[in-house]
Amino acid sequence: MIAPRLLAELHAMFSADRVATDADSLARYGLDWTRYYQPAPSAVVFPQTVDEVVAVVQWANREQVALVPSGGRTGLSGGAVARQGEVVVSFDRMKAISDFDPVARTVRCQAGVITEALQQFAAENGLYYPVDFASRGSSQIGGNIATNAGGIKVVRYGMTREWVAGLTVVTGKGEVLRLNNGLAKNNTGYDLRHLFVGSEGTLGFIVDATLKLARQPAELGVMVLAVPQLTDIMKLFHAFRERLDLNAFEFFSEKAMRHVLARGHVKRPFEGEADYYVLLEFEKLAADTEEVALAVFEACAEQGWLVDGVLSQSEQQAKDLWRLREDISESITPYKPYKNDIAVTVSRVPAFVERLDAILSREYPDFEVLWYGHIGDGNLHINILKPDALELDDFRRACEQVNEHVFSLVGEFGGSMSAEHGVGLLKRDYLDVTRSVEEIALMRAIKAVFDPNGVMNPGKLL
Ligand code: S2G
Ligand code: ZN
Questions:
Q1: Full set of structural domains in the chain with CATH
Q2: Cα 368 to middle of ligand 1, angstroms
Q3: CA distance 260 to 102
């Protein structure tokens, strides 16, 4: 915990309602959605202006105090966890949306804007913010950029990085940088904006961003397909992508879907059962797009790649079909699951899953392994539910071994040890699975340039 003198200085910098030290605030703002850590920040501050962010960073450099950035706290790698007396800097009070430019199709958001608020602003102005995921109602734009958030439409629209046209950041030295200014073209040396995207608060704070917006999509069609063989999922991906403008290509196992169905909000989409399901979404750009989708469906059925399926006939049905995929994470939270988020080259996903399934069923026969994720990006979310018979600590120890298996296989497949959830605390010690010694040394050198006193989210990522 920081000394009373330092707390007094924080109170001098921020009005009373914008410094929190009560137990509830410390517990709430010291955590994100990663449930492995005990929160223990010293205080939480709520800046409202760039100058206040500069002031607290300069103070932290003078007093050698660690700062932890806090957005929507929906992260899954402990990137926003404060557990060693750090001061949490929350962007909850910086939620302005401004400078909308309908011709350039850009808009400026302060870091604390909720993702869904930006999506709604874009829709109200006839445009579309295409980075989307289940935590849209709580996550904040600053955190989405700091973790380069992915989600369910990456196969068409890419990660958050693709939509950042400009950033205002406060570096770990307290300098304010206005990066790229929202320009579509600017070839003037190193693009420092892209260093901050995905930096997880380790180089400085993102205080606002100019984001690009896309044209509003035409009406969307959603299909769910029952797929007996994992290897056939990639054939389906190829077949549907050849003929349709796919926005999304997700998969989930029967085991995962049963947890969603058990909650009773949505029902099984059709009679046919299979080990795996694909959910795909496409844009109806032509009058015959649905016919094309059904023709591809029939052709794939003849090949035996799918045994049943459904095409949404209404917006409500499309939403219900999406819930089969998007409700998985929430449905299994009570089981305190082991989670991992990795990626391998799309074409190698079936081989990877089969290899890992074989290891896990041999080593941990009573673990329930659930697979789902953005398979069109080669991105898998592995979740293992704690068996009732196993104490949480024993389960967590066993999962340390599971990590070793997962990451050594990811290394063998030349994949990524974190596809979209970032590195944070949870995966810091596995960075070398995907990044070389030279790369990690260079990342440390870059960190030292932007945050020479190491006050920015120390212990995360590196
Ligand atoms: C997803 C969300 C969190 C999880 O559902 O796509 O990124 O449970 C995940 O892995
Ligand atoms: Zn995901």
A1: 4-90 (3.30.43.10), 97-215 (3.30.465.10), 220-329 (3.30.70.2190), 336-421 (3.30.70.2740)
A2: 17
A3: 40
